[in-house]
Amino acid sequence: MNPSNVDLTSARRRAIDAVQKAALAAVEPGQAIHRHLHREGDNLIVVDHRYDLTHFDRVFIAGGGKAAAPMVMALANVIGGSYENPPGRLAGGIAVTKYGHSSSDASLSSVELLEAGHPVPDQAGVAGARRLADLVTNAGPRDLVLCPISGGGSALLSLPAPGIALADLQAMTDQLLRSGATINELNTVRKHLSQIKGGGLARMAAPATVVSLILSDVVGDPLDVIASGPTAPDPTTYADAWAVLELYQLIASAPEPVLARLRAGLASEVAETPKPNDPLFERVQNVIVGSNRLAAEAALVKAQELGFNTLLLSTFVEGEAREVARVAAALVKEMLHHGRPVARPACLVWGGETTVTVRGDGSGGRNQELALAAAMALDGWPDVALVALATDGTDGPTDAAGAVITGETIARARQHGFDANDYLARNDSYHFFQHLNDLIITGPTQTNVNDLLFLFVFE
Fold this sequence. Notes:
Mean pLDDT: 94
Number of helices: 16
Oligomer: single chain
Largest sheet: 6 strands, parallel
Number of strands: 15
CATH architecture of the largest domain: 3-Layer(aba) Sandwich
CATH class of the largest domain: Alpha Beta
Strand content: 15-25%
Low-confidence stretches: 82-86
């Protein structure tokens, strides 16, 4: 994780590295589970709910997301990895995570951890989702289903609605991602093309008792949007999904089976997703176990320990990445000129999720694009650094988690003959930072709580 940016002194690099590590450690999924769930004899305590395990014949795990591996291990540790000594032992389970995100120590004889594609769904995800659906559909009124849910679950748990093929989902997902649609808008459409999303998993599991432990990667932690809300009531409708396609002018290019499904929903020819007043949710408990806010606050604590004046600006940041970058640059300049909102040495933190409207043929992600635009806005400004980080370790379809920039980044690029404007126009931030050795490469972090931005102004 240690940034290799040659514009930074070793002391500044160490400080940046320490703040990043503190943020990620605060949202380690296994610890997040243990903070919210524990066992007292035959009682399973989940926040303020107590479940008497003697009342259940079987306990299953069924879930998915980029953090599935450590979440499954933590749940199995609490429940018990076999079903030899009831009550409350683990009878089995299935969870689906992204390729490369299952760890060697996350294998249990009673729980299968499968891998699939993200952000565009693939056949492995469909197969895994189908098996998971079969598992929960067979659960009865005396069964308990524990659902570890984390970001990425929307793509990883893809079980298309009748009449929709995987290719249709892939094409629709790609179009929405490239259009600049927000995660809320993207998932509004996904929920109405799926059997699992939008409360579908809870519907399948009924009449079993369902407890979902959710690691949030969505601004504001809306239960219905995280992983497209497989166990949450869905306030959105087919009309909302259609409106998203209209907003981004995708009606003409959307796959016909997708349009046919949405039209059928508009005409009440197919059932809506379950709504908040549906009685099935009386047997469902949804718990947020980790979020962007927790990571941001931990980063502030570490920065304070290192001598920085700190401020958490927001964990609700959204918008086009290059526009958000200009705001970040303006804050840095304000601190340099006027010592506001805090005096230097300073570390400002914000969290959220920006979007990128793809117009070029380059490679990158929202954090890398934000960093490139910020580097251009901060060209020549001394003693500054900006770190844009995807907490899951993968920013867009790349192997980078983000990038580190300083006021010297653009000057160094010019020395190598790189035109920052050209790279930004082609949405090719990955190769820009790769040439400069300024990418943040973490590998899979085994967590996922959205993005973080760190603004440093040094003495």
